[in-house]
Design brief:
The complex is a heterodimer. Chain A is of the alpha/beta class. Chain A is 33% helix and 25% strand. In chain A, helix 2 packs across helix 3 and helix 3 packs across helix 4. The longest helix of chain A is centred in the middle third of the chain and has 16 residues. Chain A is elongated, with a radius of gyration of 24 Å. By secondary structure, chain B is of the alpha+beta class. Chain B is 37% helix and 25% strand. In chain B, strands 2, 3, 4, 5, 6, 7, 8, 9, 10, 11, 14, 15, 16 and 17 form a 14-stranded antiparallel β-sheet that branches. Classes of the chains: A alpha/beta, B alpha+beta. At the A-B interface, helix 2 of A face helix 1 and helix 5 of B. The complex binds adenosine-5'-triphosphate and magnesium ion. Adenosine-5'-triphosphate binds next to strand 2 and helix 1 of chain A.
């Protein structure tokens, strides 16, 4: 196992009355995409700012390849980051925006043109960044993160504002960065994107990491022991299976989730009772199931279930 | 189990970790925002534009020439002169037993008053042309006996006012270019007051009695005065031609540096039994700003500095507050975690850019404005080329330092409107307040000493003279601090603000 790229240990951070981080700890490894999820206000962006040395913590440490961020002499050669795609001066062109950043690290203008090409902004590079769409700004932000060709890439919600083509591009792009051996930390609220992109998942809730595991492992754990039954005789089937000791729940018009009985036993029972069915399959949980299960307690801001409609 | 991976090895060559890189980055930031470069160019243009306006706005073609002293400086050379020629060397002695002054309290209403620099005594002067060289010894209203020469030199003699009970005897000796002045309280025991080398007196000079009565500085303005002196014991030795005494107001009834006698008063002399009673007004002294009201000076021509200041303050504040507004500061500080270096790099780039713009503006504006103004017959107080250079460099440094102050306050406030307002209140407001003519001198001088507005002292070109009572206030172009000392006050504010900004930048979350 390779040395961790980012180690976050016991971060605590208070903003006035808000406890934004409350013992946040996790590790980001090279060669994989680490998804960073969690409800609004869980502390994801704050953690990233702390990793970059922008916000000071009350307790805990965040280390980049074993060193604190502020000790890095050319930080962009170690960590490329995108915190906020809007963080640019609107009247500066995209190319000039990258140019000052390159100059601050002693990088040549040639490198700027390379990253612009890499993110597909060459034709718009000399336009004012203020006129960019959100998706274009995200690409510009990615270009800035790539500038120093760093082994660690950290992106806060990079899928926001991207069109479907952009999302597909971003997915492949993140995977290729990880395939090159880089550590990639990506926060996102888009379940399917994280499920398709990330190898590893850190789920934050109320300032802590409430899960830090492989995506495949998490999904397997959530799927374990559950069977999906497709039948037109739902009521009958549920009565038979419940009688045999299973926990049953209707999940759709003609689907039932069954747990507590293995699939072959379910088939036998249904056949014995002559209940018709079209499919019995091992249930495959989605990342959404995993996430909702994990964050059930940690959600801070939830919309009221019943909304009064004013007359 | 996580598979073993080969961590990524960057291909980018790591450069040096130099401060120059930060300067380069900040310079790139500055020059790539159109509004900031335009704002800086506008600042320079403001200086030039106001100079052009100042140059063409007043037309004094055909106005009488300003009297110029031997040193090239403007002078007041208007006084009552009772004279005779003196060929070659000689000596003249007189007693002064009274010197009384009157000041108008209303139209035609002359009231006795004190004119500290009213003068009555002996003078030896090349000619009756205004501006010609001289040496004189005199009793004064409140400054005792003085010896003065060539308009700018002044030496104190025995103190105290003159009266019939306590007259003063005065003597002036000429020996070639060497003039020596003596004073006595009894006419027998003489003390030497001073000695002057006056070149250009010529072989035959005009010698005699004179009375001058400069305007009294009074409540932020001046009022013309008139004085009368009583002389006796007039004795002459040496190359006297022995002719009649001629009395005249030197330079005529009016001159650019002499507003004339108060209403119903005029210059005159009477002689009876060895007593001469002489009445005169005006002065023989260097001209100051309010004795030459039609004149201009370099600061007037560079009045656009005020408009340029507002532009550079806005640009200076935005150079950092824009980064806070759009959160680009996160990127800046992530790229350069040693935060105070960022602030210092910003300050250096901003100072240098503004300095260059200000210098170009001032160097174009000053000669252009002076030339236009002189072409329109406006008298401009002369300055040496080293002074002119100091004013141009100082104006550029004033603008540059003000922009760094705005940057620092911007870094403290993280908000453009607050920073711009604060710095404008700190620099421009004192400037405006001191530009109000009726502002009491003490308040104006205090403002020009302790506020960042003190820096306008770098534009002063006028010289203050102890022997001329006048309104020496910033409004007239006289500053309580020396040029570079005034700039140092602003620099002090900028450095302290920059230090506070650096500490806060370290302490606060980005
Ligand atoms: N600068 C700040 N000042 C005050 N409170 C802050 C600040 N930054 C973050 N917080 C608070 O800290 C908590 C964590 O915020 P953070 O932005 O890290 O959450 P997040 O996980 O990124 O949420 P989201 O998914 O909405 O982006 C929130 O309650 C937020 O209001
Ligand atoms: Mg966030």
């Amino acid at each position: 196992m390779s040395a961790p790229a980012i180690v976050v240990a016991g971060l605590r951070k208070r903003y006035g009355a808000t406890l934004a981080l409350d013992g946040m700890s996790f590790t980001v490894r090279p060669g994989v995409v680490t998804g960073f999820m969690g409800p609004n206000g869980a502390g994801k962006s704050t953690t990233m700012r702390v990793i970059l040395g922008l916000d000071a913590v009350d307790e805990g440490t965040a280390l980049i390849e074993g060193k604190p961020y502020h000790s890095l002499r050319h930080p962009l050669n170690h960590v490329g980051s995108l915190l906020d795609a809007a963080a640019l001066h609107p009247s500066r062109s995209a190319r000039n925006h990258l140019l000052w950043l390159a100059h601050s690290q002693g990088l040549a203008a040639r490198r700027v043109d390379q990253v612009i090409e890499q993110v597909g902004l060459t034709s718009a590079a000399r336009r004012k960044a203020g006129g960019y769409s959100l998706g274009m700004r995200q690409r510009l932000g990615i270009a800035a993160a790539l500038l120093g060709d760093p082994p660690i890439i950290m992106l806060d919600e990079p899928f926001n504002g991207m069109d479907p083509d952009g999302i597909i591009w971003m997915r492949g792009f993140l995977r290729s960065l990880a395939a090159q051996g880089r550590a990639v930390l990506v926060s996102s609220h888009l379940m399917s994107e994280v499920q398709d992109t990330a190898d590893h998942l850190v789920v934050a809730g109320r300032g802590k990491a409430i899960a830090d595991a492989g995506v495949a492992d998490l999904i397997a754990a959530a799927s374990r022991g559950r069977v999906t039954l497709r039948t037109t005789a739902g009521t009958h089937a549920m009565r038979v299976l419940a009688h045999a000791g299973a926990t049953v729940a209707a999940t759709g018009r003609d689907t039932i989730a069954v747990s507590g009985l293995p699939a072959d036993r379910i088939v036998t029972l249904l056949n014995q009772s002559a209940v018709p069915f079209s499919e019995v399959s091992a249930h495959r949980a989605t990342l959404e199931d995993v996430y909702l299960e994990l964050t059930r307690e940690a959600v801070e801001f939830r919309a009221a279930t019943h909304t009064e409609v004013p007359r | 189990m996580t598979p073993t991976v080969t961590p990524y090895r960057p291909s980018q060559r790591v450069g040096r970790d130099g401060f120059l890189q930060l300067l380069h980055a900040e310079w790139t930031k500055f020059r790539t925002v159109r509004g900031w470069t335009v704002g800086t160019v506008v600042a320079a243009l403001m200086v030039v534009l106001f100079a052009l306006l100042a140059g063409v706005s007043s037309n004094q073609k055909g106005a009488p020439a300003v009297p110029i002293g031997p040193g090239g400086e403007p002078v007041t050379d208007s006084f009552y002169f009772l004279h005779q020629p003196l060929a070659g060397n000689g000596s003249i002695t007189v007693s002064v037993s009274a010197l009384k002054s009157s000041i108008p309290k209303g139209p035609g209403d002359l009231q006795p008053g004190t004119v500290p620099w009213a003068k009555a005594g002996l003078i030896i002067k090349q000619s009756t042309h205004q501006g010609s060289p001289y040496a004189a010894i005199m009793a004064t209203g409140s400054h005792g006996v003085r010896m003065q020469d060539t308009y700018i030199n002044d030496t104190a003699g025995p103190p105290g006012p003159v009266s019939a009970e306590s007259p003063r005897w005065l003597r002036l000796d000429r020996s070639g270019d060497a003039i020596t002045g003596y004073a006595s309280t009894d006419g027998t025991k003489w003390t030497k007051v001073g000695h002057a080398q006056v070149s250009g007196l010529g072989s035959t000079a005009q010698v005699g009695l004179f009375v001058a009565s400069p305007p009294a500085a009074w409540g932020g303005g001046t009022a013309g005065s008139v004085s009368t002196a009583v002389f006796g014991d007039l004795r002459v030795q040496g190359g006297w031609t022995g002719g009649e005494w001629t009395g005249e107001q030197l330079g005529g009834a009016h001159s650019p540096t002499f507003a004339g006698y108060p209403e119903s008063a005029s210059g005159s002399f009477t002689q009876s039994g060895g007593r001469f009673t002489v009445t005169g007004a005006g002065d023989i002294a260097p001209a100051v700003r309010d004795s030459l009201p039609t004149g201009g000076h370099l600061r007037d021509i560079l009045a656009g500095t005020f408009a340029a200041l507002i532009a550079v303050i806005v640009v200076g504040a935005l150079f950092i507050t824009a980064e806070y507004r759009n959160k680009m500061i996160h990127l800046t500080l992530a790229a350069s975690p040693r935060r105070s270096r960022v602030l210092v790099a910003k300050a250096i780039v901003l100072w240098a850019v503004t300095f260059v713009a200000g210098l170009v503006g001032a160097i174009l504006a000053a000669p252009l404005g002076e030339r236009l103004a002189r072409g329109n017959g406006v008298y401009i107080f002369p300055v040496s080329s080293s002074t002119e250079l100091r004013v141009a460099l100082g104006t550029a440094a004033l603008l540059a330092t003000a922009s760094v102050l705005a940057l620092s306050v911007g870094a403290i406030f993280r908000h453009s409107a607050g920073a711009v307002t604060t710095v404008i209140v700190a620099i421009v407001l004192p400037y405006i307040l001191t530009a109000i003519p009726f502002m009491p001198a003490s308040v104006a001088n205090w403002l020009a000493t302790v506020t960042p507005g003190a820096a306008f002292a770098v534009q002063q070109t006028l010289v203050q003279y102890d022997q001329v009572a006048s309104n020496y206030t910033p409004y007239y172009g006289y500053y309580p601090l020396a040029p570079w000392a005034g700039l140092a006050v602003l620099a002090g504010y900028a450095v302290v603000s920059l230090a506070v900004a650096a500490v806060l930048l370290h302490r606060r979350d980005a």
